[in-house]
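User: I'm new to structure prediction. If I give you an amino acid sequence, what do you actually give back? Let's try with this one:
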Amino acid sequence: MPTTIIEVARYARVAPSIVSRLLNADPKLHIRPETEARIRTAVALLKYQPNNAGRALRSTKAAAVGLILPDVTNPVFAESVRGAESEAANLGYVLLLGRTDDLDTQSSSYRRLIGERRIDGVLVQVSNVLDSATMSKVIDTRVPTVLINSRLEDIPGSVRINDEFAAYLATAHLIDIGHRDIGMLAGPRGLYTSAQRQHGFEKAMKEAGLRVRRNWIVDGSYDVDTGQAAMKAMLRSPGHHPTAVFVTTLSAAVGALAVVHAGGMSVPGDISIVGLHDFWFAEHTSPPLTTVRTPQFALGVAAMRVLADRINGAEPVDLVVDEPPPELVIRGSTAPLHAAGGSQGLA
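Assistant: Good question. You get back a string of structure tokens that encode the predicted 3D arrangement of the chain. For your 347 residues, that looks like this:
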């Protein structure tokens, strides 16, 4: 019977994985010279021959890719997931979903799939603050990786929508209907998309000659609860409150709408609200939310195509999806500024 790698490991007094990594020239393996010598002596004495057929089988493509989401329940991601899944099927891949939080544990089954190269590449949808060091810890960047709607300096390869233009479009709409006191419920500080959306907001304000009030830019996140908290903070700020607010994601806009109603004010009578992204429930809030529709399906399709190219040896690219372009969808949550102006904030 041929010698097994387990027998070699037992003879050399190391784990089988150490033998495998040494024989496969793993660049991340660091062992003492005497340990390496014991392993190579064991290989020679036991006449161990690697299973080349098994190695060839492992080196073939797995025909599976991963899509990492910060929140699998967030409806904003639904269209980009649908686009990625559709294009993955067209290209002959199975798409596996995972959560960002799951990657930050050594026991994560998803992380094991990445480490064992049982998936060919990874798409990472970013909506919370992940720096390059954190990403490198949770993802083996030797596996082709493409970021969705973000950019990190040390991880090349991304596909994004034009967040700056989308935010500009939302803010310009409020200006066009007569609002001058305009606030913004922003995303997490330090996040690439948050910065891009704030740039778009400030660009529209400055082009109109309007003052950007720093106390009317409230940092938050991209969910209903933080949208509520940010709107409460804005309405409780000293002096009068804005007559219109741009909210940088749809879920947070729903939270902001609820807070205005709970405070006894009306939308759009006292405050106009416009949100970024569009989803079916935006038509069914009270009033229906004005939004900027972004090309989420096309984003998912493009991200999957870029990842497939990376898997096949292409160099990383940073791509902006601009077809179809962001589109303003006017509904009942925005209206021209009344001559009387806005109400006071919450007590």
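You can read the tokens as a compact description of the fold. Here is one thing that stands out. The first strand starts at residue 64 and ends at 69.
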